């Protein structure tokens, strides 16, 4: 089951960097709004305090009465702006209307110090207002009386000023936020570039590995942060360990095959001599079984040796693939006749490719051997060399035998996989073909033939002098 990829690192970084910035930007805007309102309220409070004291000074006690020296012109000035209307009320005793706007509501139930302004919020005509209240004593000591002066101002202007101030602040704040977001985005992209380069190198190495048997080269980063260098070093250490393991496996396979060849050759020779010398049927039957098993083992050892050699690096040269295919087909002609198979060649007269002649010969030997073994008596086997397009040449062996189930076509190239129970095979021939194809920066293929049969082969790059389609 493939793991489900999570959120990308780039998206996480942008989320954690830009989201807090947006929250701080909104919080800063709200804080600026509150500060603007508070500063506006402070200005209104100062104005109201001065106004209520000035109005109180215009009220002069005369005996037991009051003289209000408040010209109508001053009153008109206070009330001329409907949006920023300033109203007042004079009452004595407190709450008993004498002058001004009788609609001003009374203050909240608190103790008000005489001679000290008291400020509070209320509503007039369903509009919020700020009110300054001042109480003073007048009259004779024998008949003291108290006077209340209230001056109210609408808060509409305060809110309008705060809104204008906030708008003027939000525009530069927004531009700064956008600029900062762009810088953060560019910084995240630049900071992740070493990871992108690392990813590209790994993908490139993986693609090269699919087309060759060479070990993966180490990852090289000339300039990258320390964390990326550490990651690359860890990957290189892993690749080195894998390469060492592959080399050990190849050496063991090669050494084991070499060690087995000599005793198997001796076993086959001694068994053949015993068959010539023995005349007893039971003994000959057993010796034939021993000889057959020894030959199968020798074939397996030969295949293991070829597999080990096909996985090693070799130098490529220009090879006439068509001439090589005809030569190999002629070498197998005698065995094909003995097996009752019609073996022939079709395709290009000449076709130059970049390859290694010994490896290509071994690949074709395995393809022909596989076809002769499984196509059956009376079958027709054809060796073909054609231009496959995209700068590649195809070397294939086609037969009209029983073929393979289409669901198992890719299994043909798996090591030790066999598509038939017929004796004699060891399941490595087509694996060697695939390894040789990878060594040539090509690929192996297997296709069914209509109405029945199988076409198996490999594609290798054309030489620069070869025709291309």
From TrEMBL:
Sorted UniProt keywords: Kinase, Membrane, Phosphoprotein, Transferase, Transmembrane, Transmembrane helix
The keyword Transferase belongs to this UniProt entry's keyword annotation: yes
Catalytic activity: ATP + protein L-histidine = ADP + protein N-phospho-L-histidine
GO cellular component entries: plasma membrane
EC number annotated for this UniProt entry: 2.7.13.3
Subcellular location: Membrane
Highest taxon of source: Bacteria
Chief place of localization: membrane
Matches recorded under SMART domains: HATPase_c (SM00387), HisKA (SM00388)
Enzyme class: transferase
Residue stretches making up the Histidine kinase domain: 255-464
Keyword GTP-binding: no
Molecular functions per Gene Ontology: phosphorelay sensor kinase activity
Signal peptide as annotated in the record: none
Official protein name in the record: histidine kinase
């Amino acid at each position: 089951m493939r793991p489900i990829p999570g959120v990308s690192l780039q998206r996480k970084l942008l989320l954690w960097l830009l989201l807090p910035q947006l929250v701080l930007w909104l919080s800063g805007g709200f804080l600026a709004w509150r500060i603007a309102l508070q500063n506006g309220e402070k200005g209104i409070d100062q104005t109201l305090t001065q106004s209520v004291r000035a109005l109180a000074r215009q009220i002069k006690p005369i005996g037991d009465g009051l003289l209000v020296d408040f010209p109508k012109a001053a009153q008109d000035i206070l009330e001329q702006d409907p949006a920023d209307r300033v109203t007042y009320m004079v009452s004595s005793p407190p709450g008993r209307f004498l002058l001004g706007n009788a609609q001003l509501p009374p203050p909240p139930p608190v103790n008000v110090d005489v001679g000290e302004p008291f400020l509070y919020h209320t509503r007039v005509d369903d509009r919020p207002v700020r009110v300054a209240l001042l109480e003073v004593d007048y009259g004779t000591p024998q008949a003291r009386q108290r006077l209340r002066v209230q001056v109210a101002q609408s808060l509409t202007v305060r809110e309008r000023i705060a809104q204008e101030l906030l708008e003027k602040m939000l525009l530069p704040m927004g531009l700064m936020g956008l600029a900062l977001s762009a810088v953060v985005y560019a910084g995240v992209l630049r900071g992740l570039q070493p990871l992108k380069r690392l990813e590209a190198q790994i993908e490139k190495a993986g693609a090269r590995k699919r087309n060759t048997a060479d070990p993966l080269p180490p990852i090289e980063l000339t300039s990258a942060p320390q964390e990326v260098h550490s990651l690359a070093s860890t990957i290189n250490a892993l690749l080195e360990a894998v390469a060492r393991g592959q080399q050990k496996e190849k050496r063991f396979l090669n050494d084991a095959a070499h060690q087995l060849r000599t005793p198997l050759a001796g076993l086959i020779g001694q068994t053949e001599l015993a068959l010539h010398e023995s005349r007893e049927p039971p003994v000959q039957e057993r010796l034939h079984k021993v000889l057959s098993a020894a030959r199968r083992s020798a074939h397996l050892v030969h295949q293991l040796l070829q597999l080990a050699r096909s996985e090693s690096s070799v130098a490529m040269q220009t090879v006439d693939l068509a001439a090589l295919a005809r030569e190999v087909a002629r070498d197998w002609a005698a065995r094909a006749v003995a097996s009752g198979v019609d073996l022939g060649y079709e395709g290009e007269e000449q076709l130059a490719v970049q390859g290694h002649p010994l490896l290509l010969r071994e690949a074709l030997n395995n393809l022909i051997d596989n076809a002769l073994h499984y196509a059956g008596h009376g079958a027709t086997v054809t060796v073909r060399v054609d231009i496959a397009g995209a700068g590649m040449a195809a070397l294939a062996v086609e037969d009209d035998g029983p073929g393979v189930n289409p669901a198992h076509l890719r299994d043909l190239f798996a090591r030790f996989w066999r598509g038939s129970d017929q004796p004699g095979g060891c399941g490595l021939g087509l694996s060697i073909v695939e390894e040789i194809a990878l060594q040539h920066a090509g690929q192996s293929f297997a296709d069914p033939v209509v109405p029945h049969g199988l076409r198996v082969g490999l594609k290798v790059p054309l030489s620069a002098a070869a025709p291309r389609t």
